[in-house]
Design goal:
- This protein is an alpha/beta fold.
- The protein folds into 2 domains: 169 residues, Thiolase/Chalcone synthase (Peroxisomal Thiolase, Chain A, domain 1, 3-Layer(aba) Sandwich), CATH 3.40.47; 125 residues, Thiolase/Chalcone synthase (Peroxisomal Thiolase, Chain A, domain 1, 3-Layer(aba) Sandwich).
- 31% of the residues lie in helices and 22% in strands.
- It is built from 11 helices and 13 strands.
- α4 links the parallel β4 and β5.
- The radius of gyration is 20 Å and the shape is globular.
Length: 349
Amino acid sequence: MLSAKIAGVGHYVPEQIVSNNHLTAYMDTSDEWIQERTGIKERRFADRTGETTTTMAIQAARVAIERAGTTAEEIDFIIFATLSPDYYFPGCGVLLQRAMKMKEIGALDIRNQCSGFVYALSVADQFIKTGMYRNILVVGSEKHSFGLDFSTRGRNISVIFGDGAGAVVVQPADREGQGILSTHLHSDGESAELLAMFNPGTHANHWTNEPLASFDEAPIGNMFMSHQMIDQAQLYPTMDGPAVFKKAIVKFPEVIMEALNRHHLQTSDLNLLIPHQANLRIAQFVQQHLKLRDDQVFNNIEKYGNTTAASIPIALSEAWELGKIQTGDLVCLAAFGSGYTWGSALIRW
């Protein structure tokens, strides 16, 4: 069975830098308050009309494809992870395929939020192992800035997120022992509503305290979106931050150790851990819990905020550019997010 390797990495972040101090013009917050709770100093926001989730993905994909020594025409499958697609449907995968003038290849959209890239990488790994595809483009891209509540009411969420995209090209490995050693995926939907964006949706407003209506009481379809949702700020994401934090600091180290234990490795064997950039405090807790040195963990949340599905590929690309990943290094990617879903990937570079 073939092994899969990451042959090329790339990322793109918008030019517009939004500092913590900039946000104080819209909400009751401060640079000190944000940094203390999240570790974030600034984030990037995409151009409101000139950039989309797909256009940012294209920028990252072009770099990854070039670094992989291939071309857009040679890509034979796309896996696109995002929670902020250009359209409710169709997905961003086909929009990227069209814009990059690729062949009529398959395009799969992944909706696993913060864990989306790890899930997408796992799918790509299986396709390479079976020999079905040889050049798979895996993308994580997010444009959060268009859908956040920039008021004091929404500050606990809005100060966290930023925009950006990352991409990798996955190909068959050149030698034995190289590439993706294993991936590990998990979910627990018991607390799904603690980190969610309910509207628009097909749940008939069950989770938003809006009265349920039968078809006899209201026109068909009016529960998908209503003026009440707008008036009551029900079109924004919601999060129970403390609950998410408590779950994340348990599942992050668990899934990292699951990957290492599978291959009879220790944390001391790790050259680099790249965690999903959710909150610097979570990453620091995981580092301390696993007794990892500073040089074994890569974080860039202070510059970009939480870019959800894009955060791991952005960090992976940036770490590679900085020379922090060398051939033969043992690299672990790990994520935890809405769902709850979480996962890890262990890679011999």
